[in-house]
Amino acid sequence: MSLTVPADLLARAEQGAVDDAEFVECVRTSLPYAWDVVSDVASRAGDLFAEHAVPPPSETERGQLLRALASDSIRGALERHFGVKLAFQNCHRVAAFAPATVDGDVYREFVSPLAQIRNQTPELVDC
């Protein structure tokens, strides 16, 4: 399961009455490690970008990053909340880019197949 959804939030969602702030709060409380990583890179992105490249301490934390960044709705909500574009490699390398840089060289390099290949190591094959 991606998120731990409180019963009252689930009831409101079934009625079609959940806003972005409520969803973001659910993400924050359900995926605290992923939230901390994204909060950190977003706060350091400034006018360009920032990245986090430290492998998570356990599979639990790695799973949180995977769930947060593989879900279009979660990732989109985080991007809107923090005002950044997120990029992800190797199950732990997270970057936040200022929106104005998404068409730039640094962003294109980070999300390129070449960067993904260069970022591979035997230790990360099963991440």
From TrEMBL:
Domain of life of the organism encoding this protein: Bacteria
- What is the recorded name of this protein? Uncharacterized protein
